């Protein structure tokens, strides 16, 4: 590894390094060529490769230190291999979707190829020492999706350097010396995420080194259609720092110029690391020797002239000429390296394919044997043998082939009582459990720090416990959190100086400093990105989305990146970010406060918490801070001015996740609800009692997870009627609750009336009190729907209204 000092490339170049770089570039190219062949030959479904970008990535890797981060995309195979973090067998294993972590440690076969990750959690799911690793955040496919979190990774370095209270977190940083290498394609810089991040990085002055791999195309669309002035470095020229203004450093370099690339990256990394200044490296004149991906051929959209230019400017080809011209090697030596590199790539491919097939062979052979044994002396022998024969003949079988054959056989054997059927069933049960682990594990933390393991600690109150407004309760709570845990930082729009728009953090910046409680620009996507990156580096950010509906701006980052992180690495990475927002019964078309169903559909992998008041919210924050999963918590906007009693054990009390609260007991009908609707339903229940109807009111408290101990079904066993009420659109979160209870808890067995939902209207709520009344469920609606359910059951006692 080259010493990271500002040296001219010629000073640091040795013949040995040059030839080893050439070997790596050549190997990587061979891997790309063989990978494409695998897709064309049917061994893999899709392939995307880093050919044409080898040299730039080798140069970037030369400036990469242990503890640094890569936040890149699917072209980075050479980068990661140069760091020693990718063996070619692993590359092929991912191409084939090999599910064993030993073979494919990046994603255990869960991602398409070209998605690289460092395992920075141990087998238990606990942090390893990141400062000893060459860290790659697991890549994601949506273009530019890797960028927002890169801001947060870099921002963490700033915190580690500037907040000395963090200096003992030596598993994550040494004085904030770690820099973040983000990579992005030229076309993807058209995305808003990119611009938002570059602006924020300049504002924040963080060590983000952004490389643009510019091959002139985004699939078929050329750069002139993508970027103003056809050049991202020209477009960003106004971001360049100068003697008056802070900003960023901008480098341009040709992607085939080995010596210039090395020098550029040494300089860029040095500036970034020592000065904490963001840097853009615009790597120009890169090529795509095989086109964009295996999905098409670039001959369709590139002119012959362009194709000829690309062939001439192939970085590996020019590197070769440069080596010869400068006398670092003679042709024979390079041919030897090339022959060896070809062999290395070939062997990696063969061994990865063999390992992939072997990993499935045991189950496959066993299924064939069991089918044969069962067919012997069986009335359905012919049918079973036909199933077996079809399975035996499968070309390149995968797991589903054997599973599907056995399931089919079990249908044939539905009336059979023999031991063959039992053995087939046992085989299926075993493989089902193993496949559940292969394909469905680690959506949430499975570590000893899972928030699901945090036990509830009730809030304690004394005779002296003060009664105060909800927002003041939160203020007191957050003050205790900042005092007890240096890792906790809060940031968002208006969070710092004024302490958020509802004053939950008021006065705390003054007390704990701007580095702990921080105002941000209006940029929801990178607020979340900032939080994700910090949470990936051992900090405990609480980031704020000012009002719930604005979460739409950042939904892509939440759903594509944060929600999938732990799952897509099969437990190799985590980001326990807490997102704080306020919602429920806001007023206005863009202030509904209630798009909960959208969250439930998009954010599996996060916990979604809907506390009815600030005491419950504080208890949830404590639980989340003890845990290691990400979560979204929606506070009730209309609860900040309601009086609550301040618990005496603010630092200790915890509200467990997935445990509903029974707010009122009753025997006639169960109403399941959450958030601000709790108050409305409770009030309705009071009036219903006057009409002779006893309603049991249940606050689910958390939608993800949902009622883990099945409290609701116990209530329904008693009442035999259920209504799911909320303020989301019809078929939104109310339908989700109904599915969880009627299907998930088998409630239909105990129901004497049809299960019902009460939700808002399908449109967004108009502004004002009338807008609210006429578009969201109000107390009259609750009373009337409950009454009508009772009236249907007992029209004599409850005549129609
Ligand atoms: C959000 C999103 N939109 C579209 C795509 C489909 N897509 C995949 S790669 C790509 C082109 C990216 O081009 P560029 O950023 O220049 O990277 P390159 O592949 O050329 O290295 C597109 C449009 C996607 N993955 N994500
Ligand atoms: Mg491109």
Helix-strand makeup class: alpha/beta
Mean pLDDT: 97
Number of strands: 22
How does the major sheet shape up? 7 strands, mixed
Count of distinct structural domains: 4
Oligomer state equals single chain
- Assign an overall shape: globular
Percent strand: 5-15%
Structure description:
By secondary structure, this protein is an alpha/beta fold. It folds into four domains: 9-329, Thiamin diphosphate (ThDP)-binding fold, Pyr/PP domains (Rossmann fold), CATH 3.40.50.970; 360-440; 451-645, Rossmann fold (3-Layer(aba) Sandwich); 661-793, Rossmann fold (3-Layer(aba) Sandwich), CATH 3.40.50.920. It has 27 helices and 22 strands. β3, α7 (192-204) and β4 (208-213) form a beta-alpha-beta unit. α2 packs parallel to α12. The radius of gyration is 30 Å and the shape is globular. Mean pLDDT is 97; it is low at 1-8. The protein binds thiamine diphosphate and magnesium ion (MG). Magnesium ion binds at residues 185-187, 215, 217-218.
Fold topology:
Elements: H1 9-12, H2 15-40, H3 54-62, E1 69-71, H4 77-82, H5 88-96, E2 135-136, H6 147-162, E3 180-185, H7 192-204, E4 208-213, E5 217-218, E6 221-222, H8 232-235, E7 249-254, H9 258-275, E8 279-284, H10 304-312, H11 315-325, H12 331-375, H13 381-392, H14 399-412, H15 419-440, E9 467-469, H16 470-484, E10 488-492, H17 508-512, E11 517-519, H18 524-535, E12 540-545, H19 555-562, H20 565-568, E13 578-583, H21 596-602, E14 607-609, H22 614-626, E15 631-636, E16 643-645, E17 661-664, E18 669-673, H23 677-690, E19 695-699, E20 702-704, H24 711-719, E21 722-725, H25 733-743, E22 756-758, H26 768-775, H27 779-793
Parallel strand pairs: 1-2, 1-3, 3-4, 4-8, 7-8, 10-11, 10-12, 12-13, 13-15, 14-15, 18-19, 18-21, 21-22
Antiparallel strand pairs: 5-6, 9-16, 14-20, 17-19
Bound molecules: thiamine diphosphate (TPP) and magnesium ion.
């Amino acid at each position: 590894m080259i010493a990271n000092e500002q040296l001219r490339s010629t000073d640091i170049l040795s013949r040995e390094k040059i030839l080893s770089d050439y070997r790596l570039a050549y190997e990587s190219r061979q891997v790309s060529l063989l990978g494409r062949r695998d897709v064309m030959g049917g061994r893999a479904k899709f392939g995307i490769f880093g050919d044409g970008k080898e040299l730039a990535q080798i140069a970037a890797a030369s400036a990469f230190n242990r503890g640094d981060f890569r936040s890149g995309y699917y072209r980075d195979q050479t980068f990661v291999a140069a760091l020693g973090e990718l063996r070619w067998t692993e590359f092929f294993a991912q191409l084939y979707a090999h599910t064993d972590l030993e073979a494919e440690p990046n994603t255990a076969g869960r991602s398409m190829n070209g998605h690289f990750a460092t395992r920075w959690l141990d087998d238990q799911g606990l942090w390893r020492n990141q400062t000893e690793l060459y860290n790659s955040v697991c890549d994601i496919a949506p273009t530019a999706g890797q960028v927002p979190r890169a801001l947060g990774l870099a921002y963490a370095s700033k915190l580690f350097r500037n907040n000395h209270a963090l200096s003992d977190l030596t598993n994550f940083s040494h004085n904030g010396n770690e820099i973040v290498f983000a990579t992005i394609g030229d076309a993807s810089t058209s995305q808003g995420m990119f611009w938002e991040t570059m602006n924020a990085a300049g504002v924040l002055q963080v060590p983000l080194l952004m490389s643009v791999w510019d091959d002139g195309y985004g699939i078929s669309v050329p750069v002139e259609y993508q970027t103003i002035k056809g050049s991202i470095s020209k477009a960003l020229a106004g971001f360049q720092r100068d003697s008056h203004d802070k900003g960023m450093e901008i480098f341009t370099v040709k992607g085939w110029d080995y010596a210039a690339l090395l020098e550029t990256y040494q300089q860029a990394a040095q500036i970034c690391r020592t000065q904490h200044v963001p840097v853009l490296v615009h790597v120009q004149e890169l090529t795509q020797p095989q086109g964009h991906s295996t999905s098409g051929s670039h001959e369709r959209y590139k002119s012959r002239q362009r194709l000829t230019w690309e062939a001439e400017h192939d970085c590996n080809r020019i590197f070769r000429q440069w080596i010869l011209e400068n006398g670092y090697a003679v042709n024979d030596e390079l041919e030897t390296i090339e022959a060896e590199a070809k062999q290395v790539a070939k062997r990696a491919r063969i061994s990865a394919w063999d390992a992939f097939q072997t990993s499935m062979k045991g189950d496959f052979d066993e299924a064939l044997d069991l089918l044969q044994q069962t067919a012997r002396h069986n009335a359905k022998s012919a049918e079973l043998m036909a199933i077996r024969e079809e399975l035996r003949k499968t070309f390149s079988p995968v797991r589903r082939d054997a599973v599907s054959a056995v399931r089919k056989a079990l249908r044939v054997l539905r009336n059979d009582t023999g031991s063959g059927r039992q053995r087939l069933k046992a085989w299926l049960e075993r493989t089902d459990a193993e496949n559940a682990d292969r394909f469905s594990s680690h959506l949430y933390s499975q570590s000893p720090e899972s928030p699901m393991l945090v036990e509830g600690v009730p809030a304690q109150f004394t005779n002296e416990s003060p009664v105060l407004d909800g927002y003041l309760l939160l203020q007191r709570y957050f003050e205790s959190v900042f005092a007890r845990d240096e890792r906790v930082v809060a940031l968002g729009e208006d969070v710092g100086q004024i302490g958020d728009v509802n004053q939950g953090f008021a006065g705390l910046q003054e007390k704990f400093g701007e580095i702990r409680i921080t105002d941000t620009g209006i940029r929801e996507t990178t607020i979340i990105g900032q939080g994700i990156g910090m949470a990936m580096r051992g900090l405990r950010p609480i980031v704020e989305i000012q009002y719930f509906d604005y979460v739409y701006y950042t939904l892509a980052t939440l759903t594509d990146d944060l929600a999938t992180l732990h799952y897509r690495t099969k437990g190799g990475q985590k980001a326990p970010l807490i997102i704080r927002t306020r919602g429920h019964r806001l007023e206005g078309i863009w202030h509904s406060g209630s798009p909960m169903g959208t969250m439930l559909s998009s954010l599996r992998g996060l916990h979604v918490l809907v506390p009815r008041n600030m005491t419950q919210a504080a208890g949830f924050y404590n639980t989340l801070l003890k845990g290691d999963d990400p979560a979204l918590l929606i506070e009730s906007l209309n609860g900040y001015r309601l009086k609550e009693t301040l618990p005496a054990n603010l630092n200790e009390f915890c509200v467990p996740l997935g445990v509903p609260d029974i707010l009122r007991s009753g025997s006639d009908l169960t109403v399941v609800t959450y958030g601000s609707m709790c108050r409305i339903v409770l009030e309705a229940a009071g009036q219903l009692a006057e009409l002779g109807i006893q309603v049991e009111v249940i606050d689910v408290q958390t939608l993800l997870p949902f009622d883990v101990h099945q409290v609701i079904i116990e209530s329904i066993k008693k009442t035999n009627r259920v209504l799911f009420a909320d303020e989301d659109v019809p078929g939104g979160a109310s339908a989700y609750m109904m599915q969880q209870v009627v299907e998930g808890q088998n409630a239909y067995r105990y129901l004497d009336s049809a299960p019902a939902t009460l939700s808002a209207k399908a449109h967004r709520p108009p502004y004002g009190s009338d807008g609210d009344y006429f578009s969201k469920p109000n107390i009259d609606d609750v009373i009337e729907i409950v009454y009508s359910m009772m009236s249907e059951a007992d029209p004599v006692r409850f005549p129609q209204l």
